[in-house]
Amino acid sequence: MKKDIYILGLETSCDETAAAIIKNGRDIIANVVSSQIESHKRFGGVVPEIASRHHVEQITLVLEETLHQADMTFSDLDAIAVTKGPGLVGSLLVGVNAAKALAFAHQLPLIGVHHIAGHIYANRLMKEFAFPLLSLVVSGGHTELVLMEEHGSFQVIGETRDDAAGEAYDKVARTLNLPYPGGPHIDRLAAQGQPVIDLPRAWLEEGSYDFSFSGLKSAVINTLHNAEQRKQAIKAEDVAASFQQSVIDVLTAKTVKAAKEYRVKQVLLAGGVAANKGLRAALEEQFAELADIELIIPPLSLCTDNAAMIAAAGTVLYEQGKFEDLAMNGYPGLDIEQ
């Protein structure tokens, strides 16, 4: 009989300290996340120095709670996987050095995982992959379309040329005086408003799967400033609905077009903005009409940063024999295609 594989995952790329244990790349045994949102909220965004200090304080506690929930010890594990990039360098280094220390102390293989690969593999915790597949990755720092022909193979066919979608959400939310993080607040407001404000959609040149949200963000800010100067009342709900509709139209249209062109069997939604109800509903509506393409959307708990996704992606690397040595570092600008 094939032996079960248990991978401990660690995630500290931004402002969540997380640890998880995954069995065979598919089953969650334990998944613990310590969020720092309350600490960063008053600054309107993540402060890197504060984030890394919190990781130092929380990493041991989160790790101990994970082992406790799983009722396991290090002798039960097959390897340790950790996010090695991209992310905030100070935050990454806490997780990387913790993973290296544990791997050395317990003589376990060490696996370095790309953060976005982790977000993609969060979907495998829901459903086994069928290749070729296309993943729409939407988060605070990333917006891209990633084609996969097999496990561990990533081809970026479209990416943002300026602001990521999540970054645009946060900046528009700040303009509307909404608290950080802005995405969930925009999503809630949008459900109460109507997309009656004419805002741009950046389709870019013919055939491009790239994205651009900088112009849209500027258009929202200009609309609000012009209304203020003219002393015209403008509903925040309608601004949110109009902005969100513009983002969703571009994301869904390009995803559907790419899915058809590359004849994929599955489309996956990944990243923090995957929690957006408007985006989830729009994709479900679009792909309901495409019976030969399966749409997979992870639950909200697996959309935001977590370590279950890192362990899931790390399991594939374990099976492929792709390990790191103790010289592994944190790589803030790591390329998923490398």
UniProtKB/TrEMBL annotation:
InterPro entries: ATPase_NBD, Gcp-like_dom, KAE1/TsaD, Peptidase_M22_CS, TsaD. Keywords: Acyltransferase, Cytoplasm, Iron, Metal-binding, Transferase, tRNA processing. It is found in: Cytoplasm. Belongs to the KAE1 / TsaD family. It comes from Bacillus badius. Residues 28-311 form the Gcp-like domain. This is tRNA N6-adenosine threonylcarbamoyltransferase. It catalyses: L-threonylcarbamoyladenylate + adenosine(37) in tRNA = N(6)-L-threonylcarbamoyladenosine(37) in tRNA + AMP + H(+). Binds 1 Fe(2+) ion per subunit. Substrate binds at V137, V138, S139, G140, G141, D170, G183, D187, N276. NCBIfam families: gcp_kae1 (TIGR00329), T6A_TsaD_YgjD (TIGR03723). Required for the formation of a threonylcarbamoyl group on adenosine at position 37 (t(6)A37) in tRNAs that read codons beginning with adenine. Is involved in the transfer of the threonylcarbamoyl moiety of threonylcarbamoyl-AMP (TC-AMP) to the N6 group of A37, together with TsaE and TsaB. TsaD likely plays a direct catalytic role in this reaction. Fe cation binds at H115, H119, D305. The gene is tsaD. It is an enzyme of class 2 (transferase).
